[in-house]
Amino acid sequence: MANIKQQKKRVLTNEKARLRNVSYKSKLRTAVKAVRVAVAAGDLEKATAALNKAFSIIDRAVVKGIEPKGTAKRQKSNLQNLVNGLKK
Fold this sequence. Notes:
Layout: H1 5-41, H2 44-63, H3 69-87
């Protein structure tokens, strides 16, 4: 660990932020998986509900700076296409 007081503080705050980000990314992956599982089961109602929840989590991840904007757009598009495939 560093000898400088400010650096010691930064090490602690960076670790807190890292743990927070890891937790949020896990939540995001779980939401995306819920959509994929619902689509695989062929349940349109569950898939739509899970899609709405996933969209919300993805959008919040972008606002918080956890996920890049382009990645979020691609994820949302792919999930929407999966659910649209059930509607046909």
